[in-house]
Amino acid sequence: MSFIPGQPVTAVVQRIEILKLRDGDNLILGFSIGGGIDQDPSQNPFSEDKADKGIYVTRVSEGGPAEVAGLRVGDKIMQVNGWDMTMVTHDQARKRLTKKKEDVVRLLISRKSLEEVVRQSMMQR
Amino acid sequence: MPAEVKQEQSPSNQTSLAMMQEPQEVVEETVTIEEDPGTPTSHVSVVTSEDGTTRRTETKVTKMVKTVTTRTVRQVPLGPDGLPVPEGSSPLGSYTDSIDRRYMKNGERFITPQATSTLTRSYNNYSDSYNDTPDTQFRHYTLHDGYGDMPDNYGSLSRGVNYRPYRPYMPTGGYRPENSYTLPIRKDDYGHVAQPQVPMGSSTVDLNRSQPERFQPEPYGLEDDRRSLGPEDEEPYDLEPDYSTANRRTLPGRTIREPLRNGPRVRGYEDPIEAELIDERHPYIHGMYPAPLAQPERGSMASLDRMGGRRSPSIDSIRKDPRWRDPDLPEVIAMLGHPIDPVKSNAAAYLQHLCYENDKIKKDVRQLKGIPVLVSLLDHPKAEVHRKACGALRNISYGKDHDNKVAIKSCDGIPALIRLLRKTNDMEVRELITGTLWNLSSYEPLKMVIINHGLQTMTNEVIIPHSGWEHEPNEDSKPRDAEWTTVFKNTSGCLRNVSSDGAEARRRLRECEGLVDALLHALQSAVGKKDMDNKSVENCVCIMRNLSYHVHKEVPGAEKFQDPSALQAPGSAGTQRKKKDDAGCFGGKKAKEEWFNQGRKNGEHDKNYDTLDLPKRTEPTKGFELLYQPEVVRLYLSLLTESQNYNTLEAAAGALQNLSAGQWTWSNYIRATVRKEKGLPILVELLRSDSDKVVRAVAIALRNLSIDRRNKDLIGSYAMRDLVSNLPSGQQRPAKNLEEDTVVAILNTIHEIITDSSENARSLITAQAIDKLVAINRTSQSARETKAASHVLQTVWSYKELRNALTKDGWNKTHFQPIAAGTPKGSKSCKPGYDDTTLPLMEKSQGHRGCSGGDMIPMDELGPDGYSTIDQRDKDSKYKSSDISSDLQEREPLKNDTNRKHYIRSNRPTVSLVDACDVKPQPVDSWV
């Protein structure tokens, strides 16, 4: 999914709610992110548009909260708890996800397969 | 900004340079077809010279006689099918095809196994039974005499026997022996036997054709011919009045008449006729070349073979008839206009052979007006005709004699070649066409003509399809890799040459639809496949390099990106961004981004090179814009890392050099991207290359890259030692023994690096460079080296804070001053406007930089002029000429100073060459 900065984004999104796992002082989501406007977007293996500097899920730990919640590698994170993630630096995204006081993060993610499903179902109708 | 233009490699230089270095036709691909005596097979030798910027291919067919023979033999099995054809020409046609295949391939896979084996077999048989040696040739004849009487014996002979006559020739390989063979007797025999059996219609045609060509110096020969041919032979030959050899003249007449004459007799006589044909062919065969007539022979041979067993001995004897000579040049050229196609094509093939590596013949062909005829044959509908014509043109177009190239051009040969390229699907023909165009493209005045007529066609017909690039890739179509075909290699070589023809040529190529895209795709696939040492890749990179030259001045809309004020100051991120917004399209987003940037924590981040924000694209980049997108940096760096081909390395470094020159937005990006992609260590590594030109290109690239402040810091810290080690020390030069140009380039790079950076000047001192510099300054035989070294020394001395250290090392002011007295070399050669003597006066102190105003003016003047001059000059001279570049060099630092100095030392980390900051401050990927 690509977007043009400054233009409204149309995307098929899915809500995913992840319950953080507490490990001592740390809260664990169980996935890693890549991307951000300060990163080299061309190195992102998941983006369709190589100019896309969005935040992407790069790894999901097995059995972790994220996997349980249905997050998958390659998902693009659109929002975290309502905060836009399409125009943030990598670090901003990381911080947004790791707020100590929040036990739950609600993600809005887009996924290529979702778009395809929607497209297909629309065509069928 | 003219001033900024550092040294760019002028494409023209490069190309022409290449051409010069390897005189125009550097690489020569030679295909020689020979048969060696023992085994009548054809050999193709391919000679390729390494350097070959311009690469020419010539095909040589040597000793056609044998070749022909071989084919014939080979044909034998095939023969029956082809021959029966009612039309005389058809057998010929088939013959031609096979021949073409063989040698047109240019020999790479030249020898056809079948042919060889067949031939050998027959040959062997022959030898065995007769135990012939060249010496015994006469014996054969003797036998022949007996022939007529003893048909049976002959008939029983194996097929090989039929060939027997040739045998003697082949081993000898020379022409003369054959002549000696000539025996009147044979003819007689033949005549008796053959004559009555007049050929069927089809064979007649061939016969006729061949006969005229035959030349018989000896008295007897004529008689025979007459007999069989009849009186009509005497008619003058239209095409070649000069060549009055009776036989020749008869050509047209016979052709026409014979069929009539023979017509009635038809079928029954096939055998004899064929025999006759063979006989007639002989002359050409003897010639050793694929003489024009050779084709018919083949047909006849085939039939002969077919018949062989039952045939009457007369055939053998006929064949032995040696009284033939090779057609001479005017005859061959006249044959190009012969009404029968196979004659045309054979004549062309013969010409190709004659011209091979023979400048004299090429010239003669030109003067005999052979070139227009060949060009006109390009439009001939028959494949073998235009193929052979094209082959001849390729050889003719190869060489230093530009008149040949001009001759091809002036009879509209270039459009004809392009037309044929569009029309034909035959790979061989396409190889020949593109090879010819490549040859033609080495001559400056023809470059634009080629662009005008053929650029888009070559791109559409060759470059794009072979590059694997697709205009609009389908969902399901896999990305294809480039195919390194000969056609692609030739075409890219041609484009490489024409791309050096100045600004207009570059513009045309850049705007040629799909060209840049396809070249990039090809290169990317080369990198992907790790196959980047070949000539095609080299050509592609060179084109890219040339097209990248002056891109910041020449591409449409370049002005928009010229951003003088913001550009020099990479530190002032905010302003730069705003400027960009003004220029373009992405207003909304920019504001946001800026907000983010500001939000980012501290001063560290305000060096905008860390977070280089490229303009976002609303649609995929295409066409010439691809040339300067930061993405190409990675491509060039991959080539620089992986390729073993010096020319490719040089070109890739040159491309980076060109792209990083100039002060427009994109060159800023490029400079930063090279750093971010960890390109600096790669380039520095290449300073140790054994190849002079690679070192030079890399050095100049580093110089341009150091316009970027951070690059300059990095290069100063980590490349200085390698730069210095390339300098000659005192009397003896380093092992590499670099050329003057290279030494000057390195000195200029050092100068650029230490300008405005006393840190870098300090590392220069640490690298033990002063010794060398002083030595060069005092003792070098080269005025350019002296001058460049002197500039460096002056700059070093201008840092007052370093003087202490220098003095401690035993240096004093005089070491750093230009050697004015006694050495005339330095300033004399310089442009008047620029005099070194002013330099010592200027001190590179902070204060001095402030007064850049005065300095700027000269820069502007010099900059552009210097450039254009370089451009022009380079066409002839090898590299950028020293004086000019050094002029530029001196000024350049000044120009940038104004903006730079403020932020310079503010953040100067102890950088490693791979800048930590650049590598991405944050983890690329972080667990949450």
UniProtKB/TrEMBL annotation, chain A:
GO terms for cellular component: cytoplasm; nucleus; plasma membrane. Transmembrane segments: none annotated. GO terms for biological process: convergent extension involved in axis elongation; regulation of signal transduction; Wnt signaling pathway. It is a peripheral membrane protein. It comes from the Eukaryota. Residues 15-112 form the PDZ domain. Keywords: Acetylation, Cell membrane, Cytoplasm, Membrane, Nucleus, Phosphoprotein, Wnt signaling pathway. It is found in: Cell membrane; Cytoplasm; Nucleus. The keyword Methyltransferase does not apply. May regulate a number of protein-protein interactions by competing for PDZ domain binding sites. This is Tax1-binding protein 3. It comes from Danio rerio (Zebrafish). The lineage of its organism: Eukaryota, Metazoa, Chordata, Craniata, Vertebrata. The gene is tax1bp3.
From TrEMBL, chain B:
This is ARVCF delta catenin family member b isoform X32. It comes from the Eukaryota.
